[in-house]
């Protein structure tokens, strides 16, 4: 990490300890904002609200909200404004996990070390939980204390990232690929849609809070592209190298479902190497940016540390 | 309908023929806007886009978009601006039908006279179709050519109407009520959430396009409340009096599923009477409104004509 230390002359200590301090300060804020965004479990209909809170408020890395806040640091955006897109993107992420885990899709009964929503409650409620979280994400986003023009861009950004050209489209490609074969490019497209879209939206929404069509967005897009893909490759590696208890979700599921993954296409050593290269690309993308890029560097390094 | 003819002195012919002419002029516009809002079926991922188009572009009364355009007539809102909320609300409606028809929920294989999405494609894709339509609704809404402040209110309105305190919450109440007993008030709350929310949002969004916090919104809320409930009662009556072919969806399903309905609680004659009273209340609510209320009267009358 020495290279970008020299290039970003900001008064910030680029050590893992300093980043960890930043992260530990943000996590309770993110959790509190998520808590506030969800109706109490006593509100009618109580079972739906209970299940929504179960789906969102359990353990979670909160990577997407952290990306929002870290990008905001570059532009000195007020954290109060960032809370809204940060919460909204995490609600969409949680909604997609609930639907993705359903029997008709990934059929998974373990998520973040706990029973998935359709196992804990039932399948019908899990479908409604996903829908309600989707709606609540846009409800929260519409309350962002930003200029109204910015707000329109935020909604367009998150809706685009969640829809058929983003997250949901990626899931449809994933579905179509089961049992078939994907080449490297198809696999990359799938991952960019399924994982990359929301990662990219997290970064872009924070930049948009700083002003209209920010000229630094291309660099941030490169950063988001790189860490999004690295994250997916590391996820694929985890799926075959870790057990379910460590993973908090069912291990070995990709192979069981006949899914093409980075590891099945490239093998383990090359997948590891590619993930490392992408993390380096992410660091590089930040080099020309002004302001405090340390938290974004820290997040890229954190993802890298998860590479087994 | 003579009463409101005297009270609304606008240059508009309040005859069913005149309303029908208005409706027939709006329907192709609504259909075209929906078509434009959905990616072509050739766009990647094609199967998802094909299924989204199947779910939306088949037959449909387009009541919610018609309500948007009819409310816009009162305030002389440009139809070009209304196309966006009108399309968005119909996309949410279509999404909710796709999810509602799933085996885990209503388990229906017939909708609008055709196979439901999970029957025509598969269950996994039907879940994704609903999610993608949800996202696309907000994508479309974010493009409304309106003042940015208005846009924030539109998003908040539609998100609120779709979420756990609106449509999706109503479906959760419906789910919880299967096999149990609901009293009149609970049934009314369920219907107001499940059907009323989007009806109300259709009317309110059009009024919001006309200006901030329009003072006429309470009257429009009364109108929407009344026709939303009437619509649901008539739906309940249809379920036991019509056959599946006429209905375009499976008839007798409420009784099969042990669902409390207006008819099961009040009996057929009183349900009919209540529906008629509600339609009268809807006409009454429009009486003090300025501008061209004829299309809103016409829609209330159209719903009434569906009462068997």
List keywords for this structure.
2 strands; homodimer; mainly alpha; about 300 residues; Farnesyl Diphosphate Synthase
Structure commentary:
The structure is a homodimer of 308-residue chains. With 308 residues, the first copy, chain A, is an all-alpha fold. The first copy, chain A, has a single domain (14-305), classed as Farnesyl Diphosphate Synthase, CATH 1.10.600. The first copy, chain A, contains 16 helices and 2 strands. Chain A has helices spanning 2-7, 16-37, 46-57, 63-75, 79-100, 117-120, 123-141, 148-162, 167-177, 184-209, 217-241, 244-247, 253-256, 262-266, 268-285, 294-305; strands at 110-111, 114-115. In chain A, strand 1 and strand 2 (114-115) form a beta hairpin. The longest helix of chain A is centred in the middle third of the chain and has 26 residues, at 184-209. Chain A starts with a helix and ends with a helix. Residues 1-12 of chain A have low confidence and may be disordered. Chains A and B meet through helix 3, helix 5, helix 7, helix 8 and helix 9 of A and helix 3, helix 5, helix 7, helix 8 and helix 9 of B.
